[in-house]
Write a sequence for this structure.
């Protein structure tokens, strides 16, 4: 009986651990992105993301990002920016102070090109991450402050279907510039709709792979890129 019981107990323990990470749940990300033109070669990047472990709730992360874009030419953009990230690292219910706060500075370079009907975008990003995380496993009053550096590369392809509808795909690799070289990989596919000349919405699916876990996420993204130089007509 013991030979049967022990493997079952081990399996149950592993199942509980998997449940606590939320890996077997499908979460959702609500996203807003904006590129607001303010001068011939300058625009402002604005972004807000609300991420959840489950489609019905269970907060995971708030991300707010902004930056100044310099348009070298229509197919090359350099960006310097800042991001604020508030993360609940636990899937299960946890104390209020079980979170991680991050202030992030990033430098970014985007190159665009077209092959056949596909519009390609190559995004290179460096990040300096200043993280303050509560150690919930020992003393909740102890903050673990650290600085990390990371490089990211994303290749994105957009395929117009009509003047209104399009498909969007990307793969993004995260590389840690300290221990544990591989950070994560994000594979994404979406169906997009142009609402107006400068706005669109994307309904997508993201597979987010870490070294020890894989998470699936629905994504709803709203993109709004107005030219702020235009004066409203009286």
């Amino acid at each position: 009986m013991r030979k049967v019981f022990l493997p079952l107990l081990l399996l149950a323990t592993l199942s509980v651990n998997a449940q606590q990470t939320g890996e077997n749940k499908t979460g959702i990300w609500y996203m807003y992105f904006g590129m607001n033109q303010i001068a011939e070669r300058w625009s402002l990047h604005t972004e807000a993301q609300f991420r959840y472990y489950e489609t019905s709730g269970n907060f995971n992360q708030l991300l707010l990002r902004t930056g100044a874009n310099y348009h070298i030419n229509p197919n090359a953009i350099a960006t310097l920016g800042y991001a604020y990230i508030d993360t609940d690292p636990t899937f299960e219910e946890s104390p209020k102070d079980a979170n991680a706060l991050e202030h992030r500075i990033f430098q970014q370079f985007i190159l665009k090109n077209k092959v056949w009907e596909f519009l390609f975008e190559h995004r290179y990003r460096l990040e300096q991450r200043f993280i303050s995380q509560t150690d919930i496993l020992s003393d909740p009053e102890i903050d673990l402050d650290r600085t990390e550096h990371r490089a990211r590369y994303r290749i994105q392809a957009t395929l117009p279907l009509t003047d209104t509808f399009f498909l969007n795909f990307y793969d993004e690799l995260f590389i840690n510039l300290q221990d544990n070289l591989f950070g994560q990989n994000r594979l994404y596919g979406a169906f997009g709709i142009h609402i107006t000349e400068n706005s669109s919405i994307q309904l997508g699916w993201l597979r987010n792979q870490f070294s020890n876990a894989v998470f699936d996420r629905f994504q709803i993204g709203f993109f709004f890129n107005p030219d702020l130089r235009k004066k409203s007509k009286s």
User: Anything to note?
Assistant: The chain has one helix and eleven strands. The domain at 29-224 is CATH 2.40.160 (Porin). The first helix runs from residue 2 to 21. The chain has a mean pLDDT of 86.
